[in-house]
Amino acid sequence: MPRSVNHVASRARRKNLMKLAKGYFGRRKNVWTVAKNAIEKGLVYAYSGRKQKKRNYRSLWITRINAGARLHGMSYSQFMGAVHKSGIELNRKVLADLAMNHPEAFKAVVDTVKK
Question: How far apart are CA 100 and CA 84, in angstroms?
């Protein structure tokens, strides 16, 4: 009995992966073995990048809150400690947005926390 290799499915599988390689430079976009390795590595970077993005945003928010708090004579750690003590349930994302785009609202939060 002859060996069945199902070229249709193999071709479709390769075609889907080659679509992912679109836009890559050099042989990474059109040579199957090179493209396959590039795609696999790219997917690994994409997975870890989704985790790093969360860390990067948190550190950005902390930097912005720190800058806003220092304008009002407090450090970041003092400010966040006071926020938690006073029972204000605003997260870092919202506090950073207030510090950046609505300084008067952030000042109101700082004044509430200082009391």
Answer: 20
115 and 106 Cβ atoms separated by less than 8 Å: no
pLDDT digits (tens, 9 = 90+) for 94-111: 999 999 999 999 999 999
- pTM listed for this prediction: 0.79
Average pLDDT over residues 38-44: 97
Helix, strand, or coil here: 81? helix
Q: Regarding the domain with residue range 7-114, which homologous superfamily does it belong to in the CATH classification?
A: Ribosomal protein L20, C-terminal domain (1.10.1900.20)
92: closest CA among 111, 100, 103?
A: 100
Q: Which amino acid is at 100?
A: M
Asked if 17 and 35 touch (Cβ cutoff 8 Å), the reply is yes
Domain boundaries along the sequence of the chain: 7-114
| DSSP conformation class of 26 | G
